[in-house]
Amino acid sequence: MVEKICFIGAGSMAESIIIGILNKRFLTGSQIVVTNKNSEERLTKLQNMYDIQVTADKKYAIDGAELIILATKPHDIGEAIDQVKTYIKPTQLVISVVAGIDTGFISERLGSKVPVVRVMPNTSASIGLSATAITAGVHARKTDLDLADSLFKTIGTTVIVEERDMHAVTGISGSGPAYFYYLVESMEKAAAQAGLDHTVANDLITQTIIGAGEMLKKSGESASMLREKITSPGGTTQAAIETLEENDFQQLIIKCVDSARKRSVELGDH
User: Distance between CA atoms of 14 and 176, rounded to whole angstroms?
Assistant: First the structure.
């Protein structure tokens, strides 16, 4: 039973997870404490919005917390760990949602046998629809992995993966929502150029992308098969798909995902 969670870092990912936890009533606001590097303004904003605890006192934040979630920027992770490692006990579980940073680095920086689990959710956590990958560090036990899994199941679906796959996961699902938002932005511009009312276009595009996602999830058919079913020879969809093919759309997406994966590797190396 989790009674207290401490977040180290107060960015958009931490906020998304907090929203999901509160919406699913996994914990109450009084059981969540957030601390960060130096932004009192950000902490106050989170406190006012979600009625959680915030503090600049790292020892107080960590004391008694079963879970400590590292949610800093990658370049801040080393300094953040150095500030708190003397307060963390082997009975506590450290969960990192920091892109690119492997569990070996975190364990070495902690300098103890504190269990570490690495997690890659996405910002859809705030509405309980994150796609989250989880991997265990060297000192993590099955009970630690199960606890992390149960926590992140409150904000969406989870999969357990090998740590070597986490960079690819970052490129696919960690950054993935942004790719779809960018597609929607482009479709909105196309609708505007065609003279379609913005509200009408937004409603149609939003429902279309939701419907396509549900079809992928529930139909049991592959994306390729679903696409072929609505691509009639000589029809409007075929004309659109041919334009995408002429412009190497699939290769562009492959390069996009690979760029995110490589950046995740670079962040870890740095």
Answer: 18
